[in-house]
Amino acid sequence: MQFLKLSAAILVTFLYTGCGNGASGLDTAAFTPHVDLRNLTYFIPENITTEDTEPIDSQTQILTSLGNQEVSGFVYDAGLQQVDANSTLNLGEKLNEYVKKIHGSELTTQISNLTMRDYGATRGYIVAQYQLRTARSLSPLNVTAELLKLLTDNTQEITLHEKSTAPQDSKFRLRLIVGKIKNRLYYTLSLTPEDLARQNSLLLEHMVNNANIGPNPGVLRNEHEAIIYERSGESNMTDFIFMVDDSGSMGDDQEAIRNAGEDFGDVIENFGLDYTISILTTSCGTSDDDSCTYDYNGTTFNWASYDRVINEIGIIHNDIDLFKQHIVVGTQGSPQETGIYNAEAALGENGILHQYGIPREDASQVMIIISDEPSQYESKSGGDPFDPKHNIFIDNDMLVYAIIEPDEDNETGLVIGYDLANQSQYDDLAQQTGGLLANIKNRDENGDLDFSSIMQIIAQDASEANSAVRLHRAAIINRHTLVKINGVPIPQSQESGWTYSQSLKALIFHGNAKPHKGDRIEVVYQYVDRPEK
After folding, report:
1. Which DSSP state fits 56?
2. Boundaries of domain holding 122
3. Do 182 and 197 fall into the same domain?
4. Is 504 exposed, middle or buried (0-12, 13-18, 19+ CB in 10 A)?
5. Tell me: the pLDDT tens digits for 299-356?
6. Global confidence as pTM
7. CA distance 448 to 435
8. Does one domain contain both 326 and 441?
9. Which residue(s) pair with 16 in the sheet?
10. Average pLDDT over residues 144-148
11. Do the domain assignments include residue 213?
12. How many domains does the chain have?
């Protein structure tokens, strides 16, 4: 028996694992189509099909969604990579090489990074999302073919079977994974018109999913879980914490904060959440010993305190206009920027959030960090380092998103990562909690700061987390998954059923299908038996 915690839920999980016919009664070989490439096998998820094009040198397969081909993509097996005996394959370099090719091509007028998760060291892949603008209006399938040609340095035309109903556009949402299995490199890509990105978000995730890839020959296994749902009552509650850098270095980023607040406010009310928002800063005042008066290089300064917005207006409850008025916190905070430490103090037993009853029982927890510099946690912790794997945020099952200063390519200005020379703890925390990294400098095609896409993702994740049930396996293939509640089959549906979120690694229940306390949830699913790296 294993106990898993998600938000305020306690999930009692019984596991039954097998291969072929087992507790599930599924025959994986009969039920799951796949594509065998030179070194790897790609298992095809639900509502995705292969484009009838010969794989290029047994290394490539183009994919498309059923219906009118709104979503298209590919999987590319780049083969065994030569690396020195004492080094590992650098996935970040491979990702950036490809993005630079796209940036410099005649196909593209703009490519900008929206979000990134770098699991290269732990799980063997990096996943990133981009906005792509093309020089002319094209179908998703045509853009996919051109991007594949750029990746493989292929100059030959690819024969496509494009439907007349396929949408044409010049602005696309692109999802890309660069991964490895024992130094065998692979790429998977999916894209859809930007205007359709929200409604096709699940297809984008399912097509480009590290769980779909295994060694050739691939081996599938079944798993059967029985979960007793112990969350007390249905809930659409979410507690948001905005941790905003208010140091002098943010002087050039006040517009970014204002725009992030506006974009967040524009999307959050569309999700029907009962939300609170707590605005904190990276400044001083977390304890009696942490004075906001400092002798700074011979001059005494009175810095603004980290909890001043809450002291002034309290916790914001379902009032987005009040949030927009106060999210711009200025630059009068301490130059000693300790966002993570401050959030820990605020959430602690004697902290200001705890005094206001945050987190609320059954509410999902989300923190959004906006900062242009690394965390200086050790300056207040007495030198004790921050552990991104064991902390109050993990204990509270909180999703953390970091809108931070990226590492950029000196030549092109393209985002190449978010680690800030291995100093930024914000990126480590975001990735450990399942959150995302985003660019504080992100601009639209007109050069204006734009955070609408990342705020849309955050709001959607927060909405889904309210009814999320995490499974034992970190990643599953979304095909022939069977779900029952109290013995009643539940359909896969975004209206009144279940969906699977790759970003949350969980089942999401919608509408009338949401479970109640004490319900027994049974799930049968498939996963690829594969090494992690």
Report:
1. G
2. 46-208
3. yes
4. middle
5. 888 899 999 999 999 999 999 999 999 999 999 999 889 999 999 999 999 999 999 9
6. 0.83
7. 25
8. yes
9. 224
10. 95
11. no
12. 3
